[in-house]
Amino acid sequence: MGVLNITNKRVKVGVSARHVHLSKEDLDKLFGENYKLNVKKSLMGDQFAAEETVTIIGDKLKAIENVRILGPTRSKTQVEISLTDSIYLGVTAPIRLSGDIEKTAEITIVGPKGVVRKSEGCIVAKRHIHMSTLDSKKLGIKEGVISVKFNGERDGILNNIDVRISDEYHLELHIDTDEANALGIKNGEYVEILS
User: Fold this and answer.
1) Residue 74 · residue 19 · CB < 8 Å
2) Which of the ends of the chain has fewer CB neighbours closer than 10 A, N or C?
């Protein structure tokens, strides 16, 4: 299946809903000491969607409940939301690639056993495409930025998509719910790589 997609320069879309990556320290504060996340669904590499969820609270004291935790734990806690969520919560979350959380928005996370206030770590995830080194060679694409085209009722082109390459990845474009809704793209649909 991957070879067919590469030959046609088509890539599957993964629509990324709001979610949280927790550090071990924050997981313990929110769920109790030495808590272990339960796997709901396996994702790319060793990542997984956990059964557990949290509530996030912004500066307007508005909350979004049932925000999925993605595991495993990370060195730093990170909350990924959409621009629509950012407005609702009253936080100024910058558009960043995952992991780039320095000088980002503050956010409060509430779990069943505690509350964590983060002075930074809330972002709107920048659109990006994951691919293996083999995908990269077959497509002739290196790390940098590309564009994709979606043909549908609300067809359009998405530019400025960061390419992320690792042998732990499979070929997939990640966009958030705002971007997917704007173009009418559903999770699992395909777009065409333009450059």
Assistant:
1) no
2) N
